[in-house]
Amino acid sequence: MTPANMHPAERIVRLIVGVLLLGLYGALDAPWKYFTLFGLVLIATALSGFCPIYRLTGISTTRR
Prior knowledge:
The protein has one domain. The protein is built from 4 helices and no strands. It is elongated, with a radius of gyration of 13 Å.
C-alpha cells in the first residue's frame, strides 16, 4: 500500500471539486464536457489519499 501524501483537508477539497466537476458533465457541450471527467481523477486521489504528481515532485502535504 502506498503511503498517503495529502492532508485530510486537501482530500475533502479534492472530493468536493471532483463531484462538482462531474455534475457539470451533462450541462456542457463537447469538447468542454470531457474536461469535467478530470473530476474522476480528483475523486480517486481524494479517496486514496495519494497523488502521483506529488510523489514525482517530492511534495507531501501531510504533517510530519
